[in-house]
Amino acid sequence: MILIVSSRFLELIGIIMIIFFAIKRYKAKYIYYTTLIVLISISISAIAIFIRDYFVPLSITSTVVSSALLAWLIIYVIKHRESTLDIKPEEGERCPVCTAFIKEDLPELSTLTMDEVMLFFDSVDHLIKFLEDPVFYIKQRKLPIRKLTVESIIVRAKDSGRFREITNVKLVEEEGRIVAYEKVPEDVSPTPYEEITKRYNSNVRIEIDKGGF
Fold first, then answer.
1. Are 84 and 26 in contact (CB under 8 A)?
2. For the whole prediction, is pTM greater than 0.90?
3. Does 88 fall in a domain?
4. pLDDT mean over 10-27
5. Domain annotation covers residue 92
6. Which of 110, 118, 181, 205 is the most exposed, fewest CB within 10 Å of its CB?
7. Which long-range contacts does 133-141 make (Cβ < 8 Å, 24+ apart)?
8. pLDDT digit string, tens, across residues 173-188
């Protein structure tokens, strides 16, 4: 009985993870991985019912292996949030600051998740400008945001082209605008992220260290 309850609980956890990954816009492959683990667990449980002599070892094996795989998947996603999120703007997506159309290949494509809504910006500089006065842009663009709670800020580094959490890049002011680098060019002094946050609207709540979980 305990094994059956454990299996059902584990499958429930897997289903919750699938829903969570979909809502939080993680890449589809992580949803597929979770779905596969749940289906394998269900299949083994079903087989164990018909092969009663091996019911206990099969159920224990299924529960242990499925638990380990789901735990590994959660840990991996938390530690690699930058690469596991599906940072892909939908067709017709516009920058909330300048209203320019957003394309996936923009060299400074940046994202901000606020109140569970992922916004796309054509540059890091415009993302910072949005945070300086979010209420203005939310009203102007009629964005479905009520709480000024920032869950993640991910930007594309100018030098590497990789998506990184804003706390993992160096911010540099170039010609009056802010640019993100992984490795700052020589003879250039980066601006500490703490200095940048001083520009944010005082009502903005930053929770980006939680990794989305």
1. yes
2. no
3. no
4. 89
5. no
6. 205
7. 133/201, 134/201, 134/203, 134/204, 135/201, 135/203, 137/96, 137/97, 138/96, 141/94, 141/96, 141/99
8. 988 899 999 999 888 8
